[in-house]
Design goal:
The structure is a single chain. This protein is of the alpha/beta class. Helices cover about 35% and strands about 20% of the residues. The protein has helices at about 35-45, 45-50, 60-70, 85-95, 125-135, and strands spanning about 25, 55-60, 75-80, 105-110, 115-120. It has a five-stranded mixed beta sheet with strand order 3-2-1-4-5, with helices on both faces. A hairpin with a 5-residue loop joins β4 and β5 (about 115-120). It starts with about 20 loop residues before the first strand and ends with a helix. Mean pLDDT is about 85; it is low at about 1-10.
Length: about 140
């Protein structure tokens, strides 16, 4: 079982959440149209994510959780406009992103805690790119 995500601004070590294969972090924000496109992409390659076997951390309103509930190895945290999870806070600090990122925000962190890929906002192929990078680990 992966560590529980707590809504906090305390600093954490990303490697503590990475497991053997690293992890994919996704924040869908308030689950508007750009985030829905990313969810649709993720669902199309769900089986390949399962084969990869790493952890998937998703921060989402309830609607996004329902859409992604079929994913194995996924932990969900309720999206909040006024709080940031410890994982997202660590990602934003490491990437030197001030304030809230553009959503959807996604990143891949390898098993040593290095951020090897991140994206803000939606672009076609984001889910495949996340999987491509993650599959190397």
């Amino acid at each position: 079982m992966s560590p529980e995500l707590k809504i906090t601004k305390d600093s954490i070590a990303l490697a503590n959440y990475a497991g053997v294969k690293g992890f994919v972090y996704i924040n869908l924000g308030d689950y508007r149209e750009p985030s829905k496109h990313l969810v649709n992409e993720l669902l199309q390659i769900k089986d390949m994510f399962g084969e990869w076997g790493g952890n998937l951390y998703v921060e989402t309103p309830d609607e996004g959780r329902i859409s992604l509930s079929e994913f194995e190895n996924a932990d969900f945290e309720k999206y909040s406009d006024d709080a940031t999870t410890a994982v997202e806070a660590a990602l934003l600090k490491t990437l030197d992103i001030q304030g809230r990122p553009r959503y959807p925000f996604a990143a891949f962190v390898n098993n040593t805690g290095q951020i090897l890929y991140h994206t803000e906002g939606y672009s076609i192929g984001s889910a495949e790119q996340l999987l491509k990078v993650a599959s190397q680990y």
